[in-house]
Design a protein that fits this description.
Largest sheet: 8 strands, parallel, barrel
Number of strands: 8
Bound molecules: ligand 3DU
Distance between the termini: 15 Å
Shape: globular
Oligomer: single chain
Radius of gyration: 16 Å
Strand order of the largest sheet: 1-2-3-4-5-6-7-8
Helix content: 40-55%
Number of helices: 11
Strand content: 15-25%
Order of helices and strands: EHEHHEHEHEHHEHEHEHH
C-alpha cells in the first residue's frame, strides 16, 4: 500500500498548521518545500511535529557535496526525517546527502525525473535511468518519479527494485492516484488537497487510492 504524502506548499504558518491538523488522520507524511520554509522559517517543522507524522524536506538539494551536506544537516536538525535532493548534481553530491541523512537516522530521496511538461526537456534520453542507478549506488533510500508518466515509473521501478519511489504530479498536474499508487511507495498530493474547499475530505478521498494493491510487474 502506498503512503499518502501531503505536499504542504502554502505560505502562512496558521494556514499550514490548520490544513495539517485537518488532514492528519488521512495522511502518512507531510512534505514541505521552499514556499513554507522560506515564508515561515525552518521552525515550522517543530510546529508540524505536533501531528506526529514524518516530515520530508523537499529542498531539491543540488550543490557541491559540502554545501549539500550542510543543507541536509540543517533540515534534520530542524526536525525533518527525510530530505529530497537532485541527482543531476552528481553522485558525490548524492552520497553527501545520503551520509547526512543516515548519520541522523533519516532518509534521502533523489529526484530521478520531474513530472511537469518541461521535465521532459532534460530528464530524457536515459538520464533519469542513470540518475536512478547512481542514486542506488550512492545508498539513497529511494527516488522521486513522475505520476504524470506511469510508464516511466515502471521503467524506473526496474532500476530501484525494492527501494522506494515517491511520486508527485497527481491531481493538479493531471496524474491519476489510482493508476499510480500500485506502482509506488508514496503518492504526493499538494494543490488537490490544500486548495480543495474541504482539505480533510480531499485527503480522505486520496487516502482511498492507497488501498490499491501493488503492481507485481
Ligand atoms: O502539483 P501539486 O500541487 O500536487 O504538488 C506537487 C508537489 O511535488 C510540489 O511540492 C512540487 O514541488 C513537488 N514535485 C513535483 O511536483 C514534481 C517533481 O518532479 C518533483 C517534486
Amino acid at each position: 500500500m502506498a503512503d499518502l504524502i501531503l505536499a504542504l506548499d502554502v505560505t502562512g504558518r496558521e494556514k499550514a498548521l490548520e490544513i495539517a491538523r485537518a488532514c492528519a488522520p488521512y495522511i502518512d507524511a507531510i512534505k514541505i518545500g521552499y514556499p513554507l520554509a522560506l515564508s515561515c522559517g525552518l521552525g515550522i517543522a517543530r510546529d508540524l511535529a505536533r501531528e506526529c507524522l514524518p516530515l520530508i524536506a523537499d529542498f531539491k538539494v543540488a550543490d557541491i557535496p559540502t554545501t549539500s551536506s550542510l543543507i541536509c544537516t540543517a533540515a534534520f536538525d530542524a526536525g525533518f526525517s527525510a530530505v529530497i535532493c537532485h541527482g543531476f548534481a552528481g553522485t558525490d553530491t548524492v552520497r553527501a546527502c545520503v551520509a547526512a541523512a543516515h548519520a541522523r537516522g533519516g532518509a534521502c530521496y533523489v529526484v530521478a525525473e520531474m513530472s511537469h511538461p518541461g521535465g521532459k526537456e532534460y530528464f530524457a534520453g536515459g538520464i533519469p535511468e542513470q540518475i536512478a542507478s547512481n542514486a542506488m549506488v550512492a545508498g539513497a533510500d529511494g527516488i522521486i518519479a513522475p505520476a504524470t508518466r506511469p510508464d516511466r515509473v515502471r521503467v524506473l521501478r526496474g532500476i530501484v527494485g525494492t527501494r522506494k519511489i515517491l511520486s508527485p504530479g497527481i491531481g493538479a498536474q493531471g496524474g491519476d492516484a489510482v493508476a499510480v499508487a500500485p506502482l509506488v511507495d508514496g503518492i504526493i498530493v499538494g494543490r488537490s488537497i490544500y486548495d480543495a474547499p474541504e482539505p480533510a475530505a480531499a485527503a480522505q478521498g486520496y487516502a482511498r487510492a492507497r488501498a490499491v494493491r501493488r503492481d507485481p510487474s
